[in-house]
Amino acid sequence: MIEAQTHTTELTFDVEKTRKDFPILNQQVRGKPLVYLDNAATSQKPQVVIDSLVRYYTEFNSNVHRGVHLLSEQATEAYENSRLKTQRFINAKRSEEIIFTRGTTDGINLIAQSFGRANVHEGDEIIISGMEHHSNIVPWQMLCAEKKATLRVIPIDDKGEIILDDFEKLFNNKTRLLALTHVSNALGTINPIKQVIETAHKYNVPVSIDGAQAVPHLRVDVQELDCDFYVFSSHKMFGPTGIGILYGKKSLLEVMPPYQGGGDMIKSVTFEKTIYNELPYKFEAGTPNIADTVAFGATIDYLNTLDYEAIHNYEQELLEYATGRLSTIDGLTIIGTAREKTGVISFTLDGIHPHDIGTILDTEGIAIRTGHHCAQPVMQRFNVPATARASFAFYNTKDEADVLVNAINKVKEMFS
Ligand code: C6P
Fold this sequence. Notes:
Blueprint: E1 3-5, E2 12-14, H1 15-19, E3 28-29, E4 32-33, E5 35-36, H2 47-60, H3 70-89, E6 98-101, H4 104-119, E7 125-129, H5 138-147, E8 150-154, H6 164-169, E9 175-181, H7 193-202, E10 207-210, H8 222-225, E11 229-233, E12 244-248, H9 250-255, E13 266-269, E14 274-276, H10 290-304, H11 308-327, E15 332-335, E16 344-349, H12 354-363, E17 366-367, E18 369-371, H13 376-381, E19 387-391, H14 398-415
Parallel strand pairs: 5-17, 7-8, 7-9, 9-10, 10-11
Antiparallel strand pairs: 1-2, 3-4, 6-12, 11-12, 13-14, 15-16, 16-19, 18-19
The chain binds ligand C6P.
């Protein structure tokens, strides 16, 4: 049994026990034990989440908020329970501040199309950073093009950290929103978002945080952060695909126009006038993704059984170990060396294209991602066309980091 003892505390995290919760990990890929290091793209699911999906479809599949029959009542209760669990998970003040979406991308587009179109006008400015995922760039560019507004970009330094001195200089009386990622998917950088939010609020600018890569690793408390919006995806935090969460402060959501029209988002409809439903339903038009939302509730139940502090310490130790081992490989450069990072290691190997690295690692049973990671401006900033990215979750081990290092050495031999 591999049991990680942290340097700093007495807390232990039993990784081998936890791995048993994830049935997909226990398999051979291309004749080798699977080493899954593509968690930033999507994470694996514990058996309890898979069971929850099966149970929903075998026992109470039905539409929500519509039926008077028992199955519909049960489905509605389970769906709304997931909202309450989510509220508690991120410590939102009210359950109606939790809007279910399709994912992070959908949540950011909702903010851009609803809050953005109502509040951003000609000549206004929106601040983002140089490390954003395309999902937190393109929706704002589309809005700026429509409204003749301007996108301002916080520069990042050679480590992959936002330059805080330059950041504050971007604010002026035309700034309408700051949209920033909590954790970079391409670099692993954890941004000092509490401090950044405080600065933005000093200028009365609301803040939207992309939490897609943060929630799988860090405890998030939206009241403590005082962010105005916080968006994330279930599938990156060990839950099902197709379901995401938009948290918004009630005072903002209440005055925002609906994003989409349709069933469930209305109180009454005549040809002359439609009255919209109250929060959160105003933003959940049409039949929602009921099964995955219910299973997302099971995901939160699962995560609540884990000790986040112990996990965080374990992941940091794993990151330190893997970074140390990879750094010994001649010709390997790590892109993203921020002081505060999650378990994302982006790297290049001299003279070898990242796609070749990924393809050869696959033959060793190792899953990583290669390419621009939907963050092309980050690649441009570091002057690389692409990187290979190993991204770790709490179920990964030091042994797996060793397998990765050995396989990279094999790649080097093949090209020498
Ligand atoms: N990043 C990656 O491999 P969706 O696809 O909507 O669930 O999440 C989009 C998204 C938004 N912000 C950040 C910081 C992200 O990392 C992602 C998804 C994946 O890095 C797939 S491109």
